[in-house]
Amino acid sequence: MRISVLIPVYNEEQNILPLYEQLRIVADREKYDIEFVYVDDGSRDGSFEALARLALTDTRIRVVRFRRNFGQTAGLAAAIDHATGDVLIPMDADLQNDPEDIPKLLAKLAEGYDVVSGWRKSRQDTFVSRKLPSMIANRLISWWTGVYLHDYGCSLKAYRAEFLKEVRLYGEMHRFVPIYAKWAGARVSEMVVNHRARQFGVSKYGINRTFKVLLDMLTVKFLGDYSTKPIYVFGGVGASLILLGVVLAIAMIGVKTLELAAVLPGDFQHKMLLLLLASFLATTGIMMIMMGLLAEIIVRTYHESQNKPIYLVREVVNPPAGA
């Protein structure tokens, strides 16, 4: 069984050598048939140079260098595309994931699972800006998609390659890969993994990431359940808006009738302006969300019909044989 460790990198120069040494120790001790696929996502420090030097000393290292920064999802997609392993193990480059968990993930995979997701039960991050938003997002994603995991944000996972190679990743969808795999028939499990405090560099994520997760969650649900039957969504929303309009119209007719009967004061209709404004804003918001979902479909059609990649590679160090 060949193993590919997938590591997107963005401005992690100080962490590259320590992480490699820890990975090398685990790989040599377990005698794995392994490769390390690093993707330099347009780093502005010396990350690529550090990776290139390591690649000269270990042919198991493959380095994919982007022309500019495309984001973590594109980095993971590129690592998947350049991997040759039967099992793919993504992880972060910031030393917060522990390479010693790799044998445990593989052991869990050997129990008959196709995906094993890491759970940072004792997460070493700040509570308000990182842990609390993550807990809320994980609960919402599990409830919304029906795939129950404690920690979607943990990068450390193990996948059988056949369930990952066919996944198309866009936007910030890397955290939802277990959902795509589950929908493709994969048997998904999770296990507690070690999580370490960051020693070098700074986090690339803030609390604003939670809002993006919620939008992506809506897209994932839509694509999973309604991508081939969008009329169910748009028709349902349209019917609801029509029903709401009818109810409001009946209410206004009732108000006007009461005015004519001198039950209500003649200027009562002016008090309905706030309700009309609220209805207008709600309708506009729903239309914007629907337009966003349509845009998601259009983007996928645009990329897949032209086989257009979501990243651009400048160079590859130690490419796979035949590439």
CATH class of the largest domain: Alpha Beta
Number of domains: 2
Distance between the termini: 21 Å
Helix-strand category: alpha/beta
Query: Can you say what the CATH homologous superfamily of the largest domain is?
Result: Spore Coat Polysaccharide Biosynthesis Protein SpsA, Chain A
Order of strands, widest sheet: 7-5-6-4-1-2-3-8
State the CATH topology of the largest domain.
Spore Coat Polysaccharide Biosynthesis Protein SpsA, Chain A
Q: What is the overall pLDDT average?
A: 81
CATH architecture of the largest domain: Alpha-Beta Complex
Please state the overall shape, judged from the principal axes of the Cα atoms.
elongated
Helix content: 40-55%
Q: What share of residues are in beta strands?
A: 5-15%
What's the β-strand tally? 8
Q: Let me know the largest β-sheet.
A: 8 strands, mixed
Helix count from the secondary structure assignment: 9
Instruction: Please tell me how large the radius of gyration is.
Output: 25 Å
